[in-house]
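Fold Annotation — chain and its backbone

Fields — amino acid sequence, structure tokens

___
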Amino acid sequence: QVQLVESGGGSVQPGGSLRLSCSISGHTRSNYYVGWFRQAPGQEREWVTRINKDSTTAIYTNSVIGRFTFSIDNAKNMLNLQMSSPKPEDTAVYYCAADPDRAVPMLKYKFKGQGTQVTVS
């Protein structure tokens, strides 16, 4: 059973920076497709970024391109999301997620963390 635990959320001013981390336990991340999604109050989940199982290249939703960076620390089995120049519209609960199946859409990944709140104001 894979367990994901996020950390690093909080409040940040527009134009600042914030780093979210997600520790993976139970399995090595190389066996999984991994990513981040977010959910703002009253809104649907929105995928933010993901990395395929056999890749180190992140794919981003358009609204965060050039501002967010998703990286993987394989030695620590840790996912990192660096948020630069955040905007108020980035305010949401952020979740890391993982799934071993290529066919599963990112928003339906089997394993998810508990979420961490990010507030930009």
In short: The mean pLDDT is 95. The first strand starts at residue 3 and ends at 7.
